[in-house]
Amino acid sequence: MTDGNDVPASRPKVVVEHLYKVFGEDAAATIRRVDAGESKDNIYAQTRSVAAVADVSLTVGAGEIFVVMGLSGSGKSTLIRCLNRLIEPTRGRILLDGQDVVAMDADALRELRANKLSMVFQHFALFPHKTVGENVEFGLKVRGMPPVERRQKALRALEQVGLEAYADVPPDNLSGGMQQRVGLARGLAVDPEIMLMDEPFSALDPLIRRDVQDELLALQEQLHMTILFITHDLHEALRIGDRIAIMKDGRFVQVGTPEQIVAAPADDYVAAFTRDVDRGRVFRMGRLSQEALTVTPGDDAATARRRCDEHQVAGLHVVDPDGRPLGILTRADLASAEDAALSDLMRSDYPAARADQELIELYGACARGLPIAVLDETGRLQSSVDPLRVFALLAGERGEAETPRHAADVAPLAAREE
Amino acid sequence: MADSISDFYTLPLDDWIEVLVKDWLVPNFRPLFQALEWPIDQVLGGLEGALLWLPYPVFVVVVPLIAWRAAGTPVAIFALSAVLMLDLLGIWRETMITLSMIITAVAFCVVVGVPVGILAARSDRFAGLIRPVLDIMQTIPPFVYLVPIVMLFGVGIVPGVIATIIFALPPMIRLTNLGIRQVQGELVEAGLAFGATRRQLLFEIQVPLALRTIMAGLNQTLMLSLSMVVIAALIGAGGLGLTVFTGLGRLDIGRASLGGIGIVLLAILLDRVTQALGEGGRADTGRKRSFKHLLFKGVRRTDRDDR
Q: Which segments cross the bilayer (chain A) (predicted)?
């Protein structure tokens, strides 16, 4: 594991320590071989045993979405099933809020599953003999909640996914996207603290998948659950995850934020995934922001020109005393106009963005070649982004995150402007 | 020149079995087996009494109605004709006796078979254990166990029902086991993931979803018990089987045929109705078995296929 394994800021909700799951005869021997670094194929050839999960440790903070991404056979489904012990782990500790799940007896485990955890499945796993409403009620019914109360709760959960009108329909009558929303509502109805999602959107069409992803993110905004999300789709992982673990042959290859993973893949395996990632959707404006070079309308043109030359930038932001941007001065305009007032030279249609905007939304703004004003929520100028650095980041140049402030590498643009 | 072992020595297995049954099983366990008879006798007696007590016109109305509700108009028409025909042929009383025998046998098959099937579905060891027993029950010719049954239970209609139960029980167990094992793993996982107990899992998820297969087992059990009717008559069971049996004994082709026709009519009717119930209970068509639902089942199924 490389970077990004720093414990999240909030208190840890899920802690997994050195978890192993071996399918096969001699678990101890297999674990020894795994620890010795033998490959999965090799171990299987000699012992007929597979370590589906091999020495996995992870920490998920409260309210975080932690995505485990891996191809089929990488052990990700086994890992998530170990967390609620649908599959018994062979070795290791799993702590939910500090409680050791592995040590729990059957009653405590059932209690935990009924009250704290819920799960969403790849093929929805809706009960075909129950209506949508009864499906959503299931977790509550199992818990022994009286019918009227659980019906109300189920309807509220269905409302959250926009399906309250379908409560009395059998789930088979719904489309795939709707069925998975029911699956989601069934998970939500029990007010879980931790949601386990096993490739929940993999069986859906791409467009619908995007919709339900958005819906999940919107729900998470309100509910702040702790979510463990399994997927084989890196794009989905990047879209949804606060942090992502890339899993291969039962191990975590890399753990990090989407930006960390795309910017610095730990090895060739991860790099193979990130190669065709749309980097414009992963990186956000804030990553590139630098201190903005500003002038006020009161400054004279000579000062502005000098600042431009000094810093070799294509333009300066003009701000009012409150810090709100008024417009932009381009280097070319400054050079041609002798001593006009800045307010006359200033262009008022300056490119602007917010720090959390994805780069892809700002290609148009970049095309003008002028520094992009990054505004905070109150509309004040927060920082500035040089469009060339946007393209450098998209091109995947190493170390673009730490590029020195403007100057040298901005020269080509400056040259073009002159 | 001897070319086989039996020229020197024959294993006296037949003697052993005879001793086992006659000198050990019968004297020591007869009371136990007689006690087993009691519940069957009660159910059978009550049922037979009720069926024979009900006036014939009630059947003319009720049987087609049940058939219509369960299986639709064509089967209802068949049911009406069958009821009329059976009376017309003068074998109504025999039919009712046979029907009560069959219902009793099937009821006990369900009471025993479903729980055993559920246990078999839960435990591979138990399933492995009962498998050879079921194989024997299904392949051994019924005539073989008629004699011990007579020795243990005596002669009469109740021993006939017991022989029928032995013969008809295996599909109930097998298909219950199969149905529960066939429930999708992800659905069972979903149940467990939401904290269901084993009992809740069984009754909320596994049994309802296995119901269609279990009903197929019931249907098979029913058909097998009908095919035992004549054999059961050999040890003193009455009804249509006796009609066939006595016809056979006197070479009275007409009489034997009457009994045969009665059995066939009863078999077709029961088969269609239980099959339709099984379809209606199929797990994936929602749960309400309303008139409308049952009538328009065909339409609904094509709807589903279109999607």
A: none
B286 contacts in chain A (CB < 8 Å): 129, 131, 170
Could you tell me if A167 and A73 lie in one domain? yes
The answer to whether the complex's ipTM is over 0.90 is no
The per-residue pLDDT for B43 is 92
Q: In A, which residues are within 8 Å of B205 by CB distance?
A: 127
A252 CA to centre of own chain: 17
A391 lies in a domain?
A: yes
Are residues A121 and B189, on separate chains, in Cβ contact within 8 Å?
Answer: yes
Q: Cβ of A113 and B208 within 8 Å?
A: no
Q: What is the CATH number of the domain that holds A185?
A: 3.40.50.300
pLDDT at A296 over 70: yes
pLDDT tens digit sequence for A238-279: 889 999 999 988 889 999 988 888 888 888 888 888 888 888
Looking at the structure, tell me whether residues A160 and A272 fall in a common domain.
yes
Please state the separation of Cα B181 from the chain's center in Å. Answer: 22
| pLDDT given for residue A9 in this prediction | 53
Q: Per CATH, which fold does B91-301 belong to?
A: MetI-like fold (1.10.3720)
Whether residue A225 is found in the same domain as residue A326: no
DSSP string, A128-143: TTS-HHHHHHHHHHHT
How far apart are the CA of B121 and the nearest CA of chain A, in angstroms? 19
Residue A405 has pLDDT above 50, yes or no: no
Return the ∠ at Cα A252 (arms to A249 and A255), rounded to 5°.
150
Q: What local confidence, expressed as pLDDT, does residue A397 receive? A: 59
Task: Specify whether A152 is located in the same domain as A214.
Answer: yes
By the 8 A CB rule, do A85 and A116 touch?
no
Average confidence (pLDDT) over A1-25: 72
Is B64 exposed, middle or buried, given 0-12, 13-18 or 19+ CB atoms closer than 10 A?
Answer: buried
What is the count of structural domains for chain A? 2
A295's enclosing H/E stretch is: strand A294-295
Global pTM value: 0.76
CA distance B83 to chain A (A): 35
With bands split at pLDDT 50, 70 and 90, how would you rate the model's confidence at B280? low
Lowest mean pLDDT among A363-377, A402-416, B168-182, B279-293: A402-416
Chain B contact set for A186 (CB, 8 A)? 194
A82 touches chain B (CB under 8 A): no
Cβ B197–A110 below 8 Å, yes or no?
A: yes
